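for the writeup, i need someone to sanity check this before i put it in the appendix. the sequnce is what the collaborator sent (i think, or maybe the updated version? ugh). structure was predicted straight from it, no edits. if anything looks off just tell me and ill rerun, i have time this weekend
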Amino acid sequence: MNKRIERRVLEEANIITNTEITLRELARRLGISKSTIHKDMQKRLVKLDKELYEKVQIVFKKHLDIRCYLGGEATRNKYKNLP
């Protein structure tokens, strides 16, 4: 694997574990497609650092667990602000 890609993958993983930022927010912040970040976290990171990979998976699991609540809140706010 290219050293530049390795550095990018480790940087992305550290940002995710330190800030618990979502994959989409990270993609916007770094200017990289979310598909690339997803591939980095699911396929490349496990080869580089298994422990960091497991930490990222914990954050992703947390995001999946709260997704339904966030969606409901967004819908509620949308209709609350309509005239």
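The first helix runs from residue 3 to 19. The chain is about 85% helix and 0% strand.
thx in advance!!
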